[in-house]
Amino acid sequence: MNIDLKPMLRGEITRLPIDFPIEPEAPYGVSFDGDVRVVGEITNQGGYMRLTATAEIPYSGVCARCLSEVNGLYTMPFERTVVTEGTLTEEQEEDNVDEYVILQNGMLDIDDSVREALILTFPMRLLCDEDCPGLCPKCGKALRDGACGCTTKEVDPRWAVLASLKFDEEEDSGDGK
Fold this sequence. Notes:
By secondary structure, the protein is an alpha+beta fold.
């Protein structure tokens, strides 16, 4: 979405509210249930323009530990300094790409910046709960539903031969008789 900032550049306004949708690009294994909603404002304080917004999107996917359905609303703060084209050197633009958005011919397009920030900040793994115990490695039952009854103690097969050895109590007493 192109935002017209010409009135702000002319000094007619100092604050411009924004509220618009952006079509998102979902990470692998996640589906976005709608568009990203960007709500915020652009302020001008003595030639220093600042974009402050929040991007929200409903999502769905599966828990990385127990494979149950996970639904939620991801909220991402988005803040950038607005600069006019030609203000920054190429080196400044490359080094501070996450700090600035560039105004071209009085128009500001932040769609790509919001999409990129969303991809970079969205969680790599979804969890149904931070304390999700996951699945039983033997039977595959979801452990959040309760214990499955599988034995949790396993004998290392390298030591299994020692378990079959029997010692006579009298020989092992150590009193020398």
